[in-house]
Amino acid sequence: MNRHLRRAAVSAICAFGVIASGATLDDIFAVAERINAQARTSQGKVDALTEETRALYTDYKLVLDEIEGLRVYNRQLDRQIANQEQELSQLSDSIDRVTVIERQITPLMLRMIDNLEQFVELDLPFLMTERRDRVERLRTIMERADVAVSEKFSQVLQAYQIENEYGRTMEAYGDTIDVEGTSYIVDVLKMGRIALVYQTSDGEQTGMWNDVDRRWEPLGDEYTSPVRNGIRMARQQLAPGLLILPIINPAEAQ
Fold first, then answer.
1. Regarding predicted confidence, which is higher, 155 or 17?
2. What's the rounded Cα separation, in Å, for the pair 227 and 246?
3. Is pLDDT of 75 > 50?
4. Which contacts qualify for 175-183: CB closer than 8 Å, 24 or more apart?
5. Which of 219, 222, 200 lies closest to 208 in space, CA to CA?
6. Are 174 and 188 in contact (CB under 8 A)?
7. Nearest-angstrom CA–CA distance, 57 and 52
8. What is the pLDDT of residues 139-155, one digit of tens each?
9. Following CA atoms 159, 162, 163, 167 in sequence, which dihedral angle do they give, to the nearest 10 degrees?
């Protein structure tokens, strides 16, 4: 039996089987429709699974990107933490050094204050109340716990600078002095540290500080006008000019 005959036989058998089973053409179409519906349903499920898989893959890639970003961030944090730990170590060393310096600088400041006080007492006796009060304030500051060591040292240096400036300034001020056992209210003129003279308000008496004998003593009438003019110059009541004043030789003062 050739191929065409076999195909015809199979078709005949199938047709006979369908006829024999009593099925109609509508029944065959209904079965085909159900098969197609099931196929569409299955395809829909496949499409849904495919879409879900695609969405999960997209989420997976996003998670991987986030993980990589977190790794980069963590590496940066690790470097920052390492730097901070190094800075903390350096800061701790600095604090230790500051503590040592504070222990060393406090005795130094106390000696500087003592030396300043001694210098004021041995210096020309000008503005003594102001200068002694400044030394006393330094001693008070040194005892205060709420004042930083740096501020204390700054105050001590400032006091030294003020004393240094006195040697370059011309000042006039009122004071009460003792001259040969008698108290006088006078105007005192300081010319740096080379001359310290006085004059009573009525101009009747003019004198100077004798640093050799450490006392005030009167001067002759030839100094009355120069001292008066010097006082007025210091108070900016007279234009600066040449003055003739008595000066003590530093070698004699020693």
1. 155
2. 10
3. yes
4. 177/216, 178/216, 179/205, 179/207, 179/216, 179/217, 179/218, 180/216, 180/217, 180/218
5. 219
6. yes
7. 9
8. 999 999 899 888 999 99
9. 170
Residue 16 is predicted with a pLDDT of: 39
- Cβ density class 68-103: b for 16+ within 10 Å, e for less: eeeeeeeeeeeeeeeeeeeeeeeeeeeeeeeeeeee
Torsion of CA 125, 129, 131, 134, to 10 degrees: 170
Task: Please tell me the distance from the alpha carbon of residue 237 to that of residue 172, in angstroms, as a whole number.
Answer: 11
Q: Residue type at 87?
A: E
pLDDT tens-digit map of 207-235: 999 998 999 999 999 999 999 999 999 99
pLDDT tens for residues 32-68? 788 877 877 878 787 788 888 888 888 888 888 888 8
Dist CA 43 CA 75 (whole Å): 47
User: Which of the two residues, 4 and 152, has the higher pLDDT score?
Assistant: 152
Predicted confidence (pLDDT) at residue 10 exceeds the cutoff of 60: no
CB 197 within 8 A of CB 206: yes
Structure-token pair, residue 101: 């310096």
Residue with tokens 């304030």: 137
